[in-house]
Amino acid sequence: MHHFIDRRRNPKGKSLGNRQRFLRRARDNIKERVDRSVRGKTLQQDSGDPNEGEKVTIPAKGLKEPRLAHSATGGLRHHVLPGNKEFVVGDTIPRPQGGAGQGGSKASEDGEGEDEFSFTLSQDEYLEILFDGLELPDLVEKNTFETLTVGTRRAGLTTAGSPNNLNLVRTMRNSLGRRIALQRPTMAAQKQIESQIEELEMKEPLTAKQQKLLQELQARLEGIERKRRVVGYIDPLDLRFDTYVPEKIRNSKAVVFCLMDVSGSMQEREKDLAKRFFLLLHLFLTRGYEQTEIVFIRHTHHAQEVDEEAFFYARETGGTIVSTALEKMKEVIADRYPTDEWNIYGAQASDGENFGNDSQRCKTLLLQDLLPVCQFYAYVEIVDEDADMLLSNAEAGEDLWQAYRQVKSKVQHFEMQRVSLPSHIYPIFREFFLPKIKGAQHAGS
Amino acid sequence: MQAAETTNKVLFDGPEWTFELMEKARDAIEDIALNDLGLEIYPNQIEIISSEQMLDAYSCAGLPLMYQHWSFGKHFVRDDTLYRTGRQGLAYEIVINSNPCISYNMEENTMAMQTLVMAHAAFGHNHFFKNNYLFLQWTDAAGIHDYLAFAKNYISACEERYGLDAVEEILDAAHAMQAQGVFRYGRPPQPTAAERQAMQRVRDGYESSQSLLDLWTDSTMRHEDEDGEDEDPQISARQKELNLPQENILYFLEKNSPILRSWQREILRIVRCLAQYLYPQKQTKVMNEGCATFVHYYIINKLHERGQLTQGAYMEMMHSHTNVVLQPEYDDPRYGGINPYALGFAMMVDIRRICQSPTDEDREWFSDFAGDPDWRGVLRHAWANYRDESFIQQFLSPHLIRKFKLFTLTNDAKHPSLLVSQIHNRAGYRDIRRDLAQSYNLAHLEPDIQVTDVDLRGDRELKLTHLVRNGIQLDTVNCEEVLKHARKLWGYGVKMTATNEGDGQNV
Question: Where is the composition biased (Basic residues) (chain A) (predicted)?
């Protein structure tokens, strides 16, 4: 008894459980590297392939599997080696540095010899570790918001239609097939006979034989001309027209506006937190949309659109006027992102300071200009790690916070939260998005 | 005419494999394996798998089912990275010592490779598994699948019930001592209580009938024992009670640890049972691979002789074969120890040569089988009754020592430099053979550690003794880590002492 079994269709990823256990085990090491990688990472990098994972390298130290083994040095050992060339009994060889040969190769067998260990995390694993083990729910896939526009979709070919929809390729293909099938004489064949006739006519007077040939040629020419008349080059039968049907299409382009206060009060820690928030929003949207773009707007007392590098790392001095950033955002939307094509997301991070009565202006801008075109707008206030009072009490806060609270009470797709630690980011993100499925359709409707 | 005949006979033409072609090739191989070589095999189950599944199998010690543990995930990640970056190829096959004998063939193999792999694994390894005494004595080929399924389910049930961390802790600790979780020598099974009573009755009857001859009764024996030993009688009594010394540390902990709960004991049992199952493979690398390589080499040559292989396929197989049996010399950058395929194959070819055309030297060294007309029988006998160490000790010929130009390098920590102690000449053959055999002796390769004493009524410190051979100590960093694990399983102190082999001195 014997048999062959084709196992290739068996479920893959048999060792997925092992992998999860491994990541759990190496969590501290991986976490450290992931945190480090966030700092060096740009948001746009991810937009290429959302399924692409993150490569991490961790020290193998924490993953040792200790075994009782002989030490690599010391004692009396005999090694038998192949390939003796010139040695005779009694020869001595200086001891090589770094232990005897065989000991070394054994040590690396279970990975002990390697200092570093690199592998690729999938994006889900990466996010989970980045946001401190908060489980990423499946809901992420579903509740991105999309605007609808009416467009047209091709719906095959028809035999009747308006000339502007004529499908030339298909028409000509039909015509060619018909001409070949009906053996329509070509222009070249006609030309050839015509020139033969001409040649003969030049040779007046003709012999009887030539006379006969001439008549024959003329008859053939007549036949050809008649056939070319009857079998048209293009017949109404050949015509094909494209047809279009109107259809509602979902826009699958999204743009994220990252707005950040970069005045002196925003330090490294605040920016790092803000970066995580923007990163997560962007990753989130990359999964839901075919194409995502990011616009970075930083502001002090005036706002600028900048590239990512400048956004996170350049220093600016000046006061803080938040409304300038909102103005800038409005301007960019009007300029480049027509709302019927783009799903617009706003994300704003700040430490909550604002100049004088500018907060009221922000409120008006948001309510009148921005929120009607945005799918979602999130405001994150980054507070000190020990500001328990602020964290626990949503009512307390400065001007900007108070003004935004009024906005929130009026608009459903506006969210605001305070954070002080990386681990706060993900939960608030979830809070932002989870209950918002119903209040989604604003823009474009 | 002749060409037409051979094309009819060839098993396949072209690189693509199909199940029909494999079936045909398998039948042809079987004909040679069983009727010519006289192999005896388990029924074959040949499974075609993808590279990803091969990587899966790699990470789980090559077993088809395995419980889950992070270390397997680590191995998978490492192999996967090496494979994807092209630094490591994958094996063409994996074969499992089970009944039916399962071999995994990669789908990427060409038809020629599939044929080679079938001859190698499904017949070569298969025969070895079924006939070698170590496998017969220590493994249960028919039951391994059920046991693996049980182990996997049991451990995942434990994880659900007691939590991942609790199970991981026990598995980590058990894995650390997995190599010390095997019985190295067979022992008669312990008599059950009923059997013991029956024995006692028989003895009583015998004793009463021979009441005058009370020289050999238990009481006198024990008395003598106590006289003979200068050790503390208490110690020897409790050693006897716990069946000490005990080489199987996991077994000892499973049976005697004061703190483990029953599910934890069961996990220790699973780990040591698997260690025991894999133990024969560790001892027969050279023989197992040599046997499989010899078998595939013989079979493909036979197939070629019979005109069942095209020249192209034959060349492809030979190319692969020569890669496998390449033995780089010690100063070659590719050198990574002695290649078990090369050594095993060369020795088996050599045995055939000694049978078929012995020289005077062979007659002197191998008088028992030199010139034996049945070389197949000699090989089958060797495959069945030896392991690496004894096989080399018995069959490595001076001819091969010269061919490999073997020499012994002595590394004595007391001397500043290494010494070439033997080379391939008449004076060196026996020493080189012994040294090479010793380098495959697991009893020497793995540290000899035994549970020697514990006072269960006292401080309960578990005493392990490392028997130091040739002054080779344990790797201290690793040892300390392992002892931490051992303490977790034992619940009280665990101490490792080292004793010199020769004089019994503590070091």
Answer: 1-12
Any A CB within 8 A of B333 CB: no
Asked if B362 contacts B397 with a C-beta cutoff of 8 angstroms, the reply is: yes
Residue B208 lies in a domain: no
Residue B115 lies in a domain: yes
Q: What is the pLDDT of residue A145?
A: 54
Q: Which chain A residue has its CA at the smallest distance from B58's CA?
A: A15
Which chain B residue's Cα is nearest to A97? B417
Same domain, residue pair B122 and B61: yes
The verdict on B379 and B417 lying in the same domain is: yes
Q: Identify which has the larger pLDDT, B68 or A53.
A: B68
| Residues B120, B178 share a domain | no
Asked if residue A397 has pLDDT above 70, the reply is yes
Task: Scan residues 215-234 of B and list those with Cβ closer than 8 Å to A.
Answer: none
Q: Could you say which residues from 73 to 92 on chain A have a Cβ atom under 8 Å away from some Cβ of chain B?
A: 73-85, 87-92
Q: Quick one: chain B helix, strand, coil %, rounded to 5?
A: 60, 10, 30
B391 is in which domain, residue-wise?
Answer: 325-443
Mean pLDDT over B110-132 rounds to 93
Residues B148 and B89 in one domain: no
Write down the mean pLDDT value for chain B.
86
Q: What residues of chain A lie within 8 A of the CB of B286, using their CB?
A: none
User: Domain locations in chain A?
Assistant: 17-62+114-130, 157-243, 252-440
User: Is there a contact between B59 and A111 if contact means CB atoms under 8 Å apart?
Assistant: no
pLDDT at B295: 95
- pLDDT band of A265, cuts 50, 70, 90: confident
Q: Is the CB of residue B206 less than 8 Å away from at least one CB of chain A? A: no
The reported pLDDT for the residue numbered A357 is 79
Which among B45, B409, B472 has the least Cβ separation from residue A81?
Answer: B409
Number of domains in chain B: 3
Pairs of CB atoms within 8 A across A/B: 254
This prediction has a pTM of: 0.68
Q: What pLDDT sits at residue A62?
A: 64
pLDDT score for A117: 67
B100 touches chain A (CB under 8 A): yes
User: CA B166, CA B109: separation in Å to the nearest integer?
Assistant: 43
Select from B164, B417, B418, B466 the residue whose CB has the most chain A CBs within 10 Å, as the one to mutate to test that interface. B418
The answer to whether the CB atoms of B70 and A65 lie below 8 A apart is no
B301 in a domain, yes or no?
no
Return the pLDDT at B99. Answer: 87
ipTM of the complex: 0.80
Among A170-179, B75-84, B413-422, the range scoring the smallest mean pLDDT is B75-84
Mutation target vs A (from B411, B415, B470, B473; most A CBs, 10 A cutoff): B411
With CB atoms and an 8 Å threshold, state whether A119 touches B81. yes
Q: Is A53 helix (H, G, I), strand (E, B) or coil?
A: coil
Residue A416 half-sphere exposure, CB side, CA atoms within 13 Å? 21
- The reply to whether B468 and B433 lie within a common domain is no
Q: What is the pLDDT of residues B330-347, one digit of tens each?
A: 888 888 889 999 999 999
Mean pLDDT comparison of A244-253, B134-143, B147-156, B231-240, highest-scoring range? B147-156
Please identify, in words, the CATH class of the domain defined by A252-440. Answer: alpha beta
| B81 in contact with chain A, both atoms CB, cutoff 8 A | yes
> DSSP string covering B338-404, please?
--HHHHHHHHHHHHHHHHHS--HHHHHH-TTTTT-S-HHHHHHHHHHH--HHHHHHHH--HHHHHHH
Angle between helices B51-59 and B70-84 (to 10 degrees): 140
The CA-to-CA distance between both ends of chain A, in Å, stands at 69
B145 and B95 housed in the same domain: no
Two structure tokens written together for B169: 């802790």
By C-alpha distance, which of A137, A23, A93 is closest to A430? A137
Question: Looking at residue B44, what is its pLDDT?
Answer: 92
**Are residues B392 and B347 both part of a single domain?**
yes
CB-count exposure of residue A333 (10 Å: 0-12, 13-18, 19+): buried
Q: Does residue B238 share a domain with residue B138?
A: yes
Q: Do A102 and B337 touch (CB under 8 A)?
A: yes
What is the predicted pLDDT for the residue at A141? Answer: 38
Distant-in-sequence, close-in-space partners of A246: CB < 8 Å, separation ≥ 6: A150, A151, A152, A153
B336 domain residue, yes or no:
yes
What whole-number percentage of chain A has pLDDT above 70? Answer: 74
pLDDT number for residue A375: 78
- Is the CB of B70 less than 8 angstroms away from the CB of A95? no
